[in-house]
Amino acid sequence: MNLKLIYYEIFSFKDINMGKITRKFTTKHNADEMKNWISVKLLSNELVRQIATKTEWQGNSLYLESSIGNGFIHLRDYEIEVDITLNMFGAMMSRTIEDTLENEFKKIEQKEK
Q: What residues contact 71, with CB distance under 8 A and at least 6 apart?
């Protein structure tokens, strides 16, 4: 058996799922308002910009792809649901990611109408 192939299969961490972030946030805003806010504010967050390699709106769901994992932010009127699968590197940052999401989504409630 090829030792190089074994090494690659064992240490190809990018494809290993090590964790998951699943959170729901309630809000006072409808899906359209939150979609606009996320497009303008969350996607410009320094941490999000550093790690996101692809973002794509699919209706009211934002698909995120990055070097630490991938997943969706689903928007419904008055609710945000985060469902992100993390690889090994993302799992090491999971607390920071969760705190960043929580802090950013709290800002929705503080925004002026």
A: 21, 63, 64, 82, 83, 84, 85
pTM across the whole model: 0.73
Q: Do residues 101 and 46 lie in contact, with contact meaning Cβ atoms separated by under 8 Å?
A: no
Token pair belonging to 47: 């941490």
Q: Average pLDDT of the chain?
A: 81
Query: Measured at the alpha carbon of residue 107, what is the angle toward residues 49 and 104, in degrees to the nearest 5?
Result: 30
Among candidate residues 80, 88, 99, 89, the one with its CA nearest the CA of residue 34: 80
Say if residues 77 and 88 touch (Cβ distance below 8 Å). no
Residue 49's Cβ-side half-sphere holds a number of Cα atoms within 13 Å equal to 8
Domains of the chain (ranges, CATH numbers): 3-110 (3.30.310)
Return left, alpha or beta for 71; rule: phi > 0 is left, psi -120 to 50 is alpha, else beta.
left
- What is the distance between the alpha carbons of residues 79 and 61, in angstroms, rounded to a whole number? 12
